[in-house]
Amino acid sequence: MSNPVVDTQKITPPDLSAWQANRKFDLKSEINCMAIGTVQSFDSTKQTVNVLINYLRVIKGGVTSNNPTQDTVSDKTISYPQLVQCPLMINSGGGAAITFPVAAGDTCIVLFNDRDIDTWWSTGSTGSAPNSNRMHDLSDAIVIVGIRNVQNAVTNYFNGFKIGYGSASITIDPTGNIVITGTSINLV
């Protein structure tokens, strides 16, 4: 019995570094960390936001047909679902809070918590295990309103301390001068 002849020219060894690079990319594309979104609605009582992510999600190497003899592999883009009842981050501490009007159309940063936030959100518990094994999930988004792109930059930006709303403002300059503008000023 003779040994079969193996043509080593036709055998291509696997490219481990290419496989690792592809797998690394696949893992990264499945993790949600931070996104830019647009507020769709705001519930001031619950202080939650419904938001849409401002760009499409790219799915690498998706199959583009259901015919096994004609399947082609290419990237596919899909919309993110609307994220609902996301907690709004409010600048607060020590019993004080700074609130701003939040409206549909405001741009925001959406952060995705490392783990499930359901128990913390519903009970305020600080020592409980996560409610599920979710990690970096769209269900665990937290919203910070206020980021702006170049086309929507704040007009007449004051490079110092200024609180403004409509035509009213309070400005404090580095020398300690306080300037209050508005149609009426009520001291209580």
Summarize this, please?
By secondary structure, the protein is mainly β. The protein is built from 2 helices and 12 strands; from the N terminus they run αββββββββαββββ.
Could you give the order of the helices and strands? HEEEEEEEEHEEEE
How many structural domains does the protein architecture include?
Answer: 2
- Rg over CA atoms: 26 Å
What proportion of the residues is helical, as a percent range? 10-25%
Tally of individual helices: 2
Percentage beta strand: 25-35%
Which consecutive residue ranges, at least 5 long each, have pLDDT under 50?
none
Q: How would a crystallographer describe the biggest sheet?
A: 5 strands, antiparallel
Structural class: mainly beta
Number of extended strands: 12
Widest β-sheet, arrangement of strands:
5-2-1-8-9
CATH architecture of the largest domain: Beta Barrel
- Ends apart, CA distance between termini: 106 Å
